[in-house]
Design a protein that fits this description.
- This protein has helices spanning 57-60, 80-83, 94-99, 131-139; strands spanning 76-79, 91-92, 110-113, 123-126, 128-129, 143-146.
- Helix content is 15%, strand content 13%.
- The longest helix has 9 residues, at 131-139.
- The radius of gyration is 35 Å and the shape is elongated.
- With 158 residues, the chain is α/β, with parallel strands linked by helices.
- The chain has a domain at 76-146: Ribosomal Protein L15, Chain: K, domain 2.
- It is built from four helices and six strands.
- Strands 1-3-5 form a three-stranded parallel sheet. It has a three-stranded parallel sheet with strand order 2-4-6.
Protein backbone atom coordinates (compact mmCIF):
# COMPACT_ATOMS: atom_id res chain seq x y z
CA UNK A 1 0.00 0.00 0.00
CA UNK A 2 1.29 3.43 -0.91
CA UNK A 3 0.52 6.85 0.63
CA UNK A 4 -1.40 7.86 -2.51
CA UNK A 5 -3.67 4.79 -2.09
CA UNK A 6 -4.93 5.91 1.35
CA UNK A 7 -8.52 7.07 1.35
CA UNK A 8 -10.89 7.93 4.24
CA UNK A 9 -13.66 5.37 4.76
CA UNK A 10 -16.87 5.85 2.80
CA UNK A 11 -19.23 8.28 4.54
CA UNK A 12 -16.47 9.89 6.65
CA UNK A 13 -16.21 12.96 4.42
CA UNK A 14 -19.10 15.23 3.42
CA UNK A 15 -19.16 17.34 0.31
CA UNK A 16 -18.94 21.09 1.01
CA UNK A 17 -22.33 22.82 0.69
CA UNK A 18 -22.24 25.15 -2.30
CA UNK A 19 -24.68 27.95 -1.55
CA UNK A 20 -25.80 30.79 -3.80
CA UNK A 21 -25.65 28.78 -7.01
CA UNK A 22 -29.22 29.33 -8.22
CA UNK A 23 -32.63 28.18 -7.04
CA UNK A 24 -32.29 24.81 -8.73
CA UNK A 25 -29.53 23.90 -6.26
CA UNK A 26 -31.93 24.27 -3.33
CA UNK A 27 -29.62 26.86 -1.74
CA UNK A 28 -30.19 29.81 -4.03
CA UNK A 29 -31.65 33.32 -3.46
CA UNK A 30 -30.95 33.76 0.28
CA UNK A 31 -28.36 30.95 0.48
CA UNK A 32 -29.94 29.38 3.61
CA UNK A 33 -29.48 32.61 5.60
CA UNK A 34 -33.14 33.60 5.78
CA UNK A 35 -34.14 37.18 5.10
CA UNK A 36 -32.28 40.40 5.93
CA UNK A 37 -30.51 41.10 9.20
CA UNK A 38 -27.10 41.18 10.83
CA UNK A 39 -26.68 37.42 10.56
CA UNK A 40 -27.52 37.42 6.84
CA UNK A 41 -24.69 39.84 5.97
CA UNK A 42 -21.17 38.96 4.89
CA UNK A 43 -18.15 39.53 7.11
CA UNK A 44 -17.21 38.22 10.52
CA UNK A 45 -19.76 36.04 12.30
CA UNK A 46 -21.11 37.20 15.68
CA UNK A 47 -19.08 36.05 18.65
CA UNK A 48 -20.55 33.56 21.11
CA UNK A 49 -22.68 35.26 23.76
CA UNK A 50 -23.31 38.43 21.69
CA UNK A 51 -26.73 39.86 22.59
CA UNK A 52 -27.15 42.52 19.94
CA UNK A 53 -25.46 45.32 21.87
CA UNK A 54 -27.48 44.76 25.05
CA UNK A 55 -25.31 44.38 28.17
CA UNK A 56 -24.38 40.68 28.07
CA UNK A 57 -25.57 38.28 30.76
CA UNK A 58 -21.97 37.70 31.89
CA UNK A 59 -21.60 41.41 32.72
CA UNK A 60 -25.05 41.68 34.37
CA UNK A 61 -24.25 38.98 36.94
CA UNK A 62 -22.33 39.94 40.09
CA UNK A 63 -18.71 38.89 40.12
CA UNK A 64 -17.55 36.07 42.33
CA UNK A 65 -15.95 37.68 45.32
CA UNK A 66 -13.63 36.54 48.07
CA UNK A 67 -11.52 33.46 48.47
CA UNK A 68 -12.50 29.91 49.33
CA UNK A 69 -9.83 27.88 51.07
CA UNK A 70 -9.93 24.30 49.76
CA UNK A 71 -8.08 23.00 52.81
CA UNK A 72 -10.49 24.48 55.37
CA UNK A 73 -11.88 21.96 57.83
CA UNK A 74 -15.46 22.58 59.05
CA UNK A 75 -15.92 21.42 62.64
CA UNK A 76 -19.14 20.66 64.47
CA UNK A 77 -19.07 22.74 67.63
CA UNK A 78 -20.08 21.18 70.95
CA UNK A 79 -20.14 23.40 74.04
CA UNK A 80 -19.35 22.34 77.61
CA UNK A 81 -22.96 23.03 78.60
CA UNK A 82 -23.98 20.22 76.17
CA UNK A 83 -21.62 17.82 78.00
CA UNK A 84 -22.95 18.77 81.45
CA UNK A 85 -25.76 16.18 81.16
CA UNK A 86 -23.37 13.20 81.12
CA UNK A 87 -22.69 11.20 84.30
CA UNK A 88 -19.24 11.31 85.89
CA UNK A 89 -16.72 8.85 84.40
CA UNK A 90 -18.48 8.67 81.01
CA UNK A 91 -16.31 8.47 77.90
CA UNK A 92 -17.82 11.00 75.51
CA UNK A 93 -17.16 10.24 71.82
CA UNK A 94 -18.63 11.73 68.61
CA UNK A 95 -20.73 8.55 68.23
CA UNK A 96 -22.20 9.01 71.73
CA UNK A 97 -22.94 12.69 70.96
CA UNK A 98 -24.81 11.62 67.82
CA UNK A 99 -26.69 8.97 69.79
CA UNK A 100 -27.85 11.65 72.28
CA UNK A 101 -28.77 14.05 69.38
CA UNK A 102 -26.23 16.67 70.44
CA UNK A 103 -24.69 16.59 66.95
CA UNK A 104 -26.42 15.69 63.67
CA UNK A 105 -23.81 13.23 62.39
CA UNK A 106 -20.25 12.00 62.71
CA UNK A 107 -19.04 12.83 59.19
CA UNK A 108 -17.66 16.21 60.24
CA UNK A 109 -14.95 16.42 62.90
CA UNK A 110 -16.01 17.63 66.37
CA UNK A 111 -14.55 20.58 68.27
CA UNK A 112 -15.34 21.08 71.96
CA UNK A 113 -15.87 24.75 72.85
CA UNK A 114 -15.68 26.39 76.26
CA UNK A 115 -19.20 27.86 76.69
CA UNK A 116 -20.75 26.63 79.93
CA UNK A 117 -19.66 24.87 83.13
CA UNK A 118 -18.60 21.27 83.67
CA UNK A 119 -18.92 19.66 87.13
CA UNK A 120 -18.46 15.93 86.37
CA UNK A 121 -15.11 14.32 85.47
CA UNK A 122 -15.50 13.13 81.85
CA UNK A 123 -13.15 11.56 79.33
CA UNK A 124 -13.91 13.53 76.18
CA UNK A 125 -12.65 12.27 72.82
CA UNK A 126 -12.90 14.90 70.06
CA UNK A 127 -10.93 16.08 67.06
CA UNK A 128 -10.15 19.48 68.58
CA UNK A 129 -10.56 21.42 71.82
CA UNK A 130 -10.53 25.14 72.50
CA UNK A 131 -8.03 26.18 75.20
CA UNK A 132 -10.83 27.12 77.64
CA UNK A 133 -12.69 23.84 77.05
CA UNK A 134 -9.54 21.77 77.62
CA UNK A 135 -8.79 23.70 80.82
CA UNK A 136 -12.37 23.28 82.13
CA UNK A 137 -12.43 19.52 81.43
CA UNK A 138 -9.10 19.00 83.17
CA UNK A 139 -10.14 21.28 86.07
CA UNK A 140 -13.19 19.06 86.61
CA UNK A 141 -10.86 16.04 86.85
CA UNK A 142 -11.50 14.69 83.35
CA UNK A 143 -9.40 14.07 80.28
CA UNK A 144 -9.42 15.81 76.89
CA UNK A 145 -8.18 13.33 74.28
CA UNK A 146 -7.71 14.43 70.67
CA UNK A 147 -8.75 12.03 67.91
CA UNK A 148 -6.22 12.06 65.07
CA UNK A 149 -7.48 12.26 61.48
CA UNK A 150 -10.75 13.84 60.39
CA UNK A 151 -13.35 11.33 61.54
CA UNK A 152 -13.30 7.78 62.88
CA UNK A 153 -16.22 6.60 60.74
CA UNK A 154 -16.60 8.51 57.49
CA UNK A 155 -19.05 5.99 56.03
CA UNK A 156 -21.88 7.25 58.25
CA UNK A 157 -24.34 9.75 56.80
CA UNK A 158 -24.31 12.91 58.79
Amino acid sequence: MQAHDLRPPKGAKHARRRVGRGNASGHGTYSSKGLKGQKARSGKPLRAGFEGGQTPLVKRLPKRRGFRNRNRVEYRGVNLKDLAGFAAGTEVTPELLKERNIIAGVKQPVKVLGDGQLAAALTVRAHKFSATARAAIEAAGGQAIEITGTSESNDDNG
